[in-house]
Write a structure and sequence with these properties.
The complex is a heterodimer of chains A (152) and B (111). Chain A is an alpha+beta fold and 152 residues long. Helices cover 38% and strands 26% of the residues of chain A. Chain B has a 5-stranded mixed sheet. Classes of the chains: A alpha+beta (152), B alpha/beta (111). The interface between A and B is medium-sized, with 25 and 23 residues.
């Protein structure tokens, strides 16, 4: 059975760096390379930011628990909170930007949903679950051995 | 100081950001950019050569300032992005929004 490591902190922006460092330490142990570590860090940062901003709608309204475990083919992160239910699948991706020199484009440039876009782009799999006990976001990053051809 | 600023040319101001553009540093950068814009400085260059990380909040801060200067016929140019930052910008298409100069030593005199 893989060991699950967890850390709970107050839902405050200044705690996010510590939370993500905790996850990155696990990702290093899982053998993820520098690029994958950066992906894990940014996804963790964006997920925790969304919880404070949208789930709790402000700082100091509840806790965030981040857990990680190493399974044979992946590094699995779960992020739990007790904020408002929030389904990432309902947030559309940000629009494409082509010709940004027009006045209309300057005004219409949307910057909402960027965090979720990062999470989706950077992780191999993203699951969301809501229960009476709170929200759980599961982020999965494949381990290098799982991507190679010589797995046994 | 994580953020330094200097007048680069008659019209242009250069803002250097060192460190991680996350929840701690972004509010400082936001304040500084807004102070410049309120002072009528619409030609800004943000030197990111010493910036090691940026999240969506950091991007939003830069886009917000870019939008304000563009509305005043100015520009906000970025320079010195490392490959990780460049990758972050391109993931959301912001490499097409900003004028990005690779080498901060080769800045134009007017933006």
């Amino acid at each position: 059975m893989p060991t699950k490591h967890s850390l709970t902190v107050p839902g405050q922006y200044r705690e996010i760096r510590q939370l993500c460092q905790f996850v990155m330490d696990g990702a290093k142990e899982a053998g993820l390379d520098e690029t994958a570590l950066f992906h894990v860090e940014l996804a963790c940062d964006e997920a925790c930011t969304n919880i404070i901003e949208h789930g709790y709608q402000g700082e100091g309204k509840g806790t965030i628990t981040v857990s990680w475990e190493i399974v044979p083919d992946a590094f699995v992160i779960t992020i739990h909170d007790n904020g408002r239910a929030f389904d990432p699948d309902e947030v559309p991706p940000p629009p494409e930007f082509d010709d940004t020199n027009t006045a209309a484009n300057i005004k219409n440039l949307k910057t909402g949903g960027l965090g979720l876009h990062f999470i989706r782009s950077l992780m191999d799999s993203v699951h969301y679950q809501f229960s009476p006990n709170g929200n759980t976001l599961t982020l999965i990053k494949k381990r290098p051995s799982a991507k190679g051809s010589n797995t046994s | 100081m994580n953020i330094q600023q200097e007048q680069h040319s008659e019209q242009q101001w250069l803002i250097r950001v060192a460190g991680r553009l996350d929840h701690e540093l972004t509010p400082q950068l936001n304040t500084i950019l807004n102070e410049h814009i309120e002072a009528g400085h619409y030609h800004l260059i943000v030197d990111l050569s010493q910036t090691t990380y940026i999240n969506s909040g950091g991007l939003r801060c830069l886009v917000s300032a870019w939008r304000k200067v563009r509305e005043n016929q100015g520009n906000l140019i970025l320079c010195g992005l490392n490959s990780r930052l460049m990758n972050t910008f391109s993931m959301v298409g912001f490499d097409k929004v900003f004028q990005i100069i690779t080498d901060c030593n080769q800045l134009p005199d007017n933006s």
